[in-house]
Amino acid sequence: MMLDAYEPVVRLRAATKADPYSKKPVPDWSVPPSELSLSALVGNAGSSEPLVPDRTPVEADYDLFFDSDSIDIGPNDRILVRGDVCTVQGKPFAWPLAGMVVQAKIREG
Length: 109
What we know:
- There is one protein chain.
- The protein has strands at residues 7-13, 15-18, 25-28, 34-48, 58-66, 78-81, 84-95, 99-108.
- By secondary structure, the chain is mostly beta strands.
- Strands 1-4-5-8-7-6 form a six-stranded antiparallel beta barrel. Strands 2-3 form a two-stranded antiparallel sheet.
- The radius of gyration is 16 Å and the shape is globular.
- The relative contact order is 0.24.
């Protein structure tokens, strides 16, 4: 028997401010972001840890599968997944088998 495998995730969206040079809107993470609670299937998409003598960051990826292809998540948003605040990688895309797929990355160290 399969239990509901969807996990809670939170979309974090920054306020915007004008870039001082281009005057285009850019994310302003100095202001508390707006939050939207969602649920998704969470897949571990792997991690990387380069083998070098100095301490280097560890990067881990999640694949998030939403049951709708109209979830409002963009490339400038962040996603809270399993206690990790991740950046959205690339552009979220519709997938016929799952609705929408969002790739999220966290960098530690």
